[in-house]
Amino acid sequence: MNRLIADSGASKTDWVLLGEGTPQFIQTEGLNPHLITSGEFLRVLIKELKPNLLGRSVEDIRFFGSGCGSPEKKREVEQYLREVFEFAEIHVATDLDAAGIALFGDRSGLVGILGTGSSAAYFENGKVMKQMPSVGFPDGDEGSGSYIGKRIMKLYAAGTLNSDLRSYLDHHVEEDIEKMTLMFKKNREAKLFAAEICKVMGPKSHYPQIQQIIHDGFEAYLTKVKEHFPKKVATREMGFVGSVASVFESELRSTCKQMGIEVGSVVRSPVEHLGLYFGK
């Protein structure tokens, strides 16, 4: 049996196909059903994913995605997958479920996602038991790439960003940053752009201004985690997945230590761990 597993966020979706021979890894655009239309979702499946399967059949799909928390969105995503993979058995869950499996397997602990967006949950016995509410971008997503990028963009627009950092951004980003700063209400476009700013500025993260933004973001995020899971934080370790958690792991561990949070594993992408878990 060929099993297709997806870990999907706002920016990208990592896929692994298990079954015949060695696992096959594929990457496509992000498939958050809150941020893209049904047509865009199907286009990615048909144009980006399916050709890379090289004609291999798929009997089972495990789709873990951001934006799949409600029963309604789970049904929507299942319907989109069903249109392309008519005969497959399909299971849809959240990206927090994927993170929990990757970090803890069948154990329990606190799960944190710090990528383009941010979220957290308590995970136990192979499933999410309680999820931290999220306002989302642009007012929430504390500690995420979009949050860090938004803060940098606002300093840029206000003329208070370090001159070396401003010149670096001007050289590495083609879009008009001040114009994009005014477009935060156009959620998806601005969120992805802000996360890209964070990515671009990664090599400059040692600058005090950037260090302060990263610290403030992680502190705001972890404060929310402690408010929603006060007893769990005191008794369970917390693991993290996502590009921001991975790239700024030392800053994240330092902030956690200051706030009395025990950190376990930090994983950039869960998909390989999901492949091992479901390929048993």
Features:
single chain, 280 residues, alpha/beta, Nucleotidyltransferase, domain 5, five-stranded mixed β-sheet, 10 strands, globular
Task: Describe the overall structure.
- The protein has 280 residues and is of the alpha/beta class.
- It has a domain at 3-98 and 272-278: 2-Layer Sandwich (Nucleotidyltransferase, domain 5), CATH 3.30.420.
- The protein is built from twelve helices and ten strands.
- It has helices at residues 38-49, 71-84, 95-104, 145-158, 163-172, 177-181, 187-200, 208-228, 230-235, 243-247, 249-258, 271-278; strands spanning 3-8, 12-18, 24-29, 60-65, 89-94, 109-114, 118-124, 127-131, 238-241, 263-267.
- The strands form two sheets. Strands 3-2-1-4-5 form a five-stranded mixed β-sheet, with helices on both faces. A five-stranded mixed β-sheet has the order 8-7-6-9-10, sandwiched between helices.
- Strand 7 and strand 8 (127-131) form a beta hairpin.
- Helix 1 (38-49) packs across helix 2, helix 4 (145-158) packs across helix 7 (187-200) and helix 8 packs across helix 11 (249-258).
- The longest helix has 21 residues, at 208-228.
- The chain is globular and about 55 Å long.
- The model has no long low-confidence stretch (mean pLDDT 89).
